[in-house]
Amino acid sequence: MTDKASTTTLSADECWEFLGDRPVGRLATAVAGEPDIFPISFAVAERHVVFRTHPGSKLVEVAVNARVAFEADEWTPEVATSVVVKGTAEILDRDADVAAAEATGLVSYLDDGKDVWVRITPTTVTGRRLTR
Amino acid sequence: MTDKASTTTLSADECWEFLGDRPVGRLATAVAGEPDIFPISFAVAERHVVFRTHPGSKLVEVAVNARVAFEADEWTPEVATSVVVKGTAEILDRDADVAAAEATGLVSYLDDGKDVWVRITPTTVTGRRLTR
Asked: Which domain of life is it from (chains A, B) (predicted)?
């Protein structure tokens, strides 16, 4: 650790700005005390995290316990930034909600006809930036 | 999705080789149904994930529920690889275990005197590579 090393807390605005620039994050779920984690392509829509997925473990776990944590980060040799969103995930079934999610233009890494949108409504958003 | 797009499952050897090359991963924990997620610098020691940390939420959560999931990934425009380790985390308190962890040469992003080593003993290791 040098004299220059520091930890900065990001404001909510800085957190959402950072998330808007990151293409990939990770979703953490918890079912019956078992955490799980999934990399996801995501987008930000009006301070919510949205992503597309298809039927599978992510959706099953979110259906059992909608509480989730989501993280995105960026690392360089000098600066590491990480933002964590905790909140509640829901599958979007209203046309207006789906349209708002579609409007983000998000394309999944494999655009293989995944047709379910999930939205995370945040309860807390925290960000840290480490500089060394 | 082009005709070339594909999903490949990695072997255990490929998973550990991939993890050995990645400097940063994310730890997911679950306490009382609340998932949490933390970016961590990590190393691989004899097919265990080890990392250093200091007293704080990661350690508290692992002490309450030692079940964890850990993920590392790498993305390029053409290839996305992700490996997930599920297992049990423990704080290392035996000198031999700490020495084995120290031997990895892992340096935390901020080397600020963190002095606790944590080891994840895997129950499952899975990896996927998406090519498009």
From this structure: Bacteria
Instruction: List the domain boundaries for chain A.
Output: 6-131
Burial class (CB in 10 A: 0-12, 13-18, 19+), B89: buried
What is the residue whose two structure tokens read 């040098």? Answer: A2
Cα separation of A18 and A11, whole Å? Answer: 10
Query: For each of chain A's 132 residues, which pLDDT tens digit applies?
Result: 455 688 999 999 999 999 999 999 999 999 999 999 999 999 999 999 999 988 777 888 888 899 999 999 999 989 999 999 999 999 999 999 999 999 999 988 777 666 799 999 999 999 999 998
CA B104/CA A27 separation, integer angstroms:
28
ipTM value, please give it: 0.92
Contacts with B113 from chain A: Cβ below 8 Å: 1
How many angstroms separate the CA of residue B93 from the nearest CA in chain A? 24
Under CATH, which number does the domain B6-131 receive?
A: 2.30.110.10
Give Dmax (Cα) for chain B: 53
